[in-house]
């Protein structure tokens, strides 16, 4: 890299002695990214160890797929396209793409921070290990572009405790003796691009002040760091497995992000007032989590915490999901490729909406009055949102996906979806649906199916030969049912007893064994069933014609890759710190 100091053997010997004496102060690769950042971090994404990430990924089913023997001819076509791209990239950038991809070795972090009294700043931190020469070339290429006439950046160099910070400034130049320059630049973020290189780390930011704050924490002994932020500590502790570092971590504090950006723009008071009048909003603290791979019995697993200051009040009552038994009903059959269930407290959600409306209209009972007037409107549908809808629903909702057979040999199998919303009274639900169907704008056409009424509506065919289908809406078995393929609806209404329920299949039982007895939400996916239709679609002539560079006919029979597509599950439960969500897949498809 240009302008780097050169050392004699004496200097190197002295530096080695200092390194030995003060090793903790220089070993930034051993300081976690959360300890290098200031406390006021609004968004954070970090891979603690890129090398470990790659190693773990290679152990996953997806990572092993590239070694599948029957795919090797297809991979050669893909590799040929990658090689062509790499050659063009090297001509443009002057760097081999393989060297570029090999740069990250240790931590890799992206963050959005609010330096004290400064504009919000984006920060990137990369441990490049032994790739210093490649990083130098990248920086030189970047500087050439930034200083070009087309971009017109201005370059300067600052020193921060012996570390050189290179700064590229954009926009109009401010006089150095102008004491109001900094204040005028407040509210105009991303006017700079700055970086420093230290201890095999490249750190880049849109604000010089954020780089200085990181340098102040370089030895890992600073007390005010992101690691000490109370909300991050809760998220980290509730989503990490004890004694194990995840392969990826993330965090988002949207309310503080809005406050910080508003303050930088001189609008802090206005935004603060607006947030203050929304009941319960400030009880939402943050959301974040961690992901891991090839650990224990899991192929992949991620945990997410929605951090709340409980008990929830005001606007947060829109999202009350009490834990319940959410096992699939008997009508959810074995051909189900995806299943999701949710238990929503609709009564509390309705009251929260009413309270918010009353707050903004400064009139108690205004929302109820509006609902009553809408129901009595002679030109309206004559439906009362509370008495006819909310009071009718149980709060249980199911979303079921199933692969449907094609209509003929020239059509591709499609994934049909069915949504079931629990109702307390079938007859009242049918009457409500009939009233809705009487609206001239309603697209459905009424017909009888056994003792049920179905309203059919057409759904056009998709691309690549997917079949046109007929959707449908009906009421039966204690549910308001809507589907993208009426054949699926008919099976539910028919109550077929000769098929195996999903809950009794081996695949679902394996996943359900990881579920808690009661949950706010659960999910189940058979990725092999979901992917199979897309896989066959990729082998179709229409799809292959779009990508002539790759011969998709070389793809092997789907059964060759089915073993790499294990079932997966998810669930959400109330937590002492808000709500915890877990997504996972198992290590084998068997």
Fold topology:
Elements: H1 9-21, H2 23-26, H3 33-36, E1 41-47, H4 50-59, H5 61-65, H6 72-93, H7 97-101, E2 108-113, E3 121-127, H8 132-146, E4 154-160, E5 163-169, H9 181-185, E6 192-198, E7 201-205, H10 208-215, H11 230-239, E8 248-252, H12 254-264, H13 268-276, E9 284-295, E10 298-308, E11 336-343, H14 346-361, H15 366-376, H16 385-389, E12 393-404, E13 414-423, H17 426-437, E14 445-449, E15 452-459, E16 469-476, E17 479-483, H18 486-494, H19 506-512, E18 521-525, H20 527-538, H21 541-546, E19 568-575, E20 578-586
Antiparallel strand pairs: 1-2, 1-8, 2-3, 3-7, 4-5, 5-6, 6-7, 8-9, 9-10, 10-20, 11-12, 11-18, 12-13, 13-17, 14-15, 15-16, 16-17, 18-19, 19-20
Helix pairs in contact: 12-13
Description:
With 590 residues, the chain is α+β, with helices and mostly antiparallel strands. Among the domains are: 1-49 and 106-222, 3-Layer(aba) Sandwich (Protein Transport Mog1p, Chain A); 322-504, no CATH class. It contains 21 helices and 20 strands. It has a 20-stranded antiparallel beta sheet, with helices on both faces. A hairpin with a 7-residue loop joins β2 and β3 (121-127). α12 (254-264) runs antiparallel to α13 (268-276). The longest helix has 22 residues, at 72-93. The radius of gyration is 29 Å and the shape is globular. The model is unreliable at 1-27, 177-181 and 183-187 (pLDDT under 50).
């Amino acid at each position: 890299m240009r302008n780097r100091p050169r050392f004699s053997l004496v200097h190197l010997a002295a530096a080695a002695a200092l390194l030995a004496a003060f090793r903790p102060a220089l070993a930034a690769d051993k300081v976690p990214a959360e300890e290098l950042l200031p406390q006021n971090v609004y968004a954070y994404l970090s891979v603690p160890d890129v090398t470990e990430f790659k190693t773990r990924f290679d152990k996953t089913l997806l990572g092993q797929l590239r070694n599948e023997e029957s795919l090797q001819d297809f991979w050669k076509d893909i590799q040929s396209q990658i090689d062509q791209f790499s050659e063009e990239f090297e001509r443009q950038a002057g760097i081999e793409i393989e060297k570029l991809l090999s740069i990250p070795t240790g931590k890799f972090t992206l963050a959005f921070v609010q330096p004290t009294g400064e504009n919000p700043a984006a920060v990137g931190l990369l441990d490049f290990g032994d790739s210093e020469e490649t990083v130098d070339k990248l920086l030189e290429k970047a500087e050439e572009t930034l200083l070009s006439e087309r971009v017109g950046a201005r370059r300067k160099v600052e020193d921060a405790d012996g570390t050189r910070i290179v700064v590229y400034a954009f926009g109009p130049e401010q006089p150095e003796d102008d004491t109001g320059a900094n204040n005028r630049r407040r509210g105009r973020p991303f006017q700079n691009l700055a970086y420093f290189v230290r201890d095999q780390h490249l750190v880049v930011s849109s604000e010089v002040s954020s780089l200085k704050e990181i340098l102040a924490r370089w030895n890992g002994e600073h007390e005010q760091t992101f690691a000490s932020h109370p909300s991050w500590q809760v998220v980290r502790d509730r989503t990490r497995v004890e004694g194990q570092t995840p392969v990826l971590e993330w965090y988002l504090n949207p309310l503080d992000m809005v406050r910080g950006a508003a303050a930088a723009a001189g609008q802090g008071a206005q935004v603060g007032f607006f947030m203050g009048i929304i009941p319960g909003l400030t009880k939402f603290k943050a959301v974040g989590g961690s992901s891991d791979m090839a650990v224990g019995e899991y192929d992949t697993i991620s945990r997410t915490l929605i951090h709340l200051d409980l008990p929830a009040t005001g606007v947060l009552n829109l999202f009350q999901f009490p834990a319940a038994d959410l096992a699939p009903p008997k009508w959810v059959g074995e051909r189900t490729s995806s299943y999701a269930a949710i238990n929503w407290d609709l009564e509390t959600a309705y009251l929260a909406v009413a309270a918010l409306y009353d707050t903004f209209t400064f009139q108690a009972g205004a929302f109820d009055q509006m609902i009553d007037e809408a129901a009595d409107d002679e030109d309206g549908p004559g439906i009362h949102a509370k008495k006819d809808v909310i009071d009718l629903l149980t709060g249980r909702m199911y979303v079921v996906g199933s692969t449907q057979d094609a209509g003929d040999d020239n059509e591709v199998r499609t994934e049909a979806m069915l949504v079931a919303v629990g109702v307390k009274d079938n007859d009242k639900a049918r009457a409500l649906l009939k009233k809705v169907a009487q609206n001239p704008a309603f697209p459905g056409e009424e017909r009888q199916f056994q003792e049920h009424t179905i309203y059919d509506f057409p759904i056009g065919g998709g691309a690549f030969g997917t079949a046109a289908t007929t959707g449908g809406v009906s009421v039966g078995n204690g549910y308001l049912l809507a589907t993208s393929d009426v054949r699926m609806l008919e099976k539910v209404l028919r109550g077929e007893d000769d098929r195996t329920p999903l809950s009794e299949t081996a695949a679902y039982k394996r996943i359900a064994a990881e579920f808690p007895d009661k949950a706010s939400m659960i999910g189940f996916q058979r990725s092999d069933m979901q992917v199979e239709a897309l896989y066959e679609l990729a082998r179709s002539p229409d799809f292959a014609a779009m990508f002539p560079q790759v011969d998709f006919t070389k793809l092997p029979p789907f059964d060759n890759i089915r073993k790499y597509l294990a079932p997966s599950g998810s669930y959400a439960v109330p937590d002492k710190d808000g709500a915890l969500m877990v997504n996972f897949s198992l290590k084998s498809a068997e």
